[in-house]
Design brief:
By secondary structure, the protein is mainly alpha-helical. The chain is 71% helix and 4% strand. The protein has one domain (6-97, 159-250): Rhomboid-like (Rhomboid-like fold), CATH 1.20.1540. A two-stranded antiparallel ribbon has the order 1-2. Helix 4 (61-82) packs across helix 8, helix 5 (84-119) packs antiparallel against helix 7 and helix 5 (84-119) packs across helix 8 (163-176). It is globular.
């Protein structure tokens, strides 16, 4: 702990405290989830603050362990190089951007599914009631039922986790230390960051497009990609500003 930077330690502490509270205090898990997870705007639990708070909630032990390990591994190095203020700004911008990009994907998908249901003869009012209650008269047609289930999943399954922000940190680390060797449990041989991180992003893109995931179901792959994209854009912006400042000093 003595080697851990202060902002990373603070983020780690809050994440662990929220996870422990939801696990150990009776009734708090559902309350924390309802108030802090990032819900679809059509859900009654939705709140704008959730684009930030969702980063401090996690879906299980393996989820928080992986994210916090990555936070400490990449975040401590970046905070020492940038300072706490820039590090926290980067972290939260990546996390918020990840949430909004996943929301945009879900919004588009929900609109497509809704249009399919209306074209199949369901009224918007009936669809709205089914989404709000999760119960009611459902058509017997298997295709319509499957479409309803998928639409309900979007409305009723919130997003949790710091993964979007973590992916942004990984991209920043890869930009600054491209030749650093990285390894995960399923890839025990160390691979340079400039190869490892793009390969991980490609795997997320494949999973997001095809729906097949090596890491299990219920993963917001486009949030991962969104956090990585925001992180890459921020790195480009900061590099351009640094180069411009260098040219100004030279003049």
């Amino acid at each position: 702990m003595n080697r851990m930077s202060r902002a990373v330690l603070a983020l780690l502490s809050v994440n662990l405290a929220v996870f422990a509270a939801g696990l150990l205090v009776p009734g708090w898990h559902d309350r924390i989830l309802a108030a802090g997870a990032f819900w679809f705007p059509g859900n009654g639990n939705f709140g704008v603050w959730q684009a930030v708070t969702y980063m401090f909630l996690h879906g299980g032990l393996s989820h928080i362990v992986f994210n916090m390990f990555a936070l400490v591994s990449f975040g401590s190095i970046l905070e020492r190089e940038w300072g706490a203020t820039r590090f926290l700004l980067f972290y939260f911008l990546c996390g918020i951007g990840a949430a909004l990009i996943q929301l945009a994907v879900n919004w588009h998908e929900a609109g497509t599914l809704h249009a399919q249901l209306v074209a199949a003869g369901m009224s918007p009012a009936t669809i709205r009631d089914l989404m709000a209650t999760g119960s009611g008269a459902v058509p017997v047609d298997p295709a319509i039922r499957a479409t309803l289930v998928e639409l309900y999943r979007i409305h009723a399954a919130p997003m949790v986790g710091a993964s979007g922000a973590i992916y942004g940190l990984m991209v920043a680390f890869g930009c600054l230390h491209p030749n650093a060797k990285l390894a995960l449990v399923f890839v025990p041989v160390p691979v340079a960051a400039k190869y490892f991180i793009p390969a991980l992003l490609a795997l997320d893109l494949l999973s997001g497009v095809t729906g097949f995931s090596l890491f299990g179901a219920g993963i917001a792959h486009f949030a991962h990609l969104g956090g990585a994209a925001i992180g890459f854009l921020l790195m480009l912006l900061w590099r351009q500003r640094a180069a411009a400042a260098g040219r100004a000093l030279a003049i």
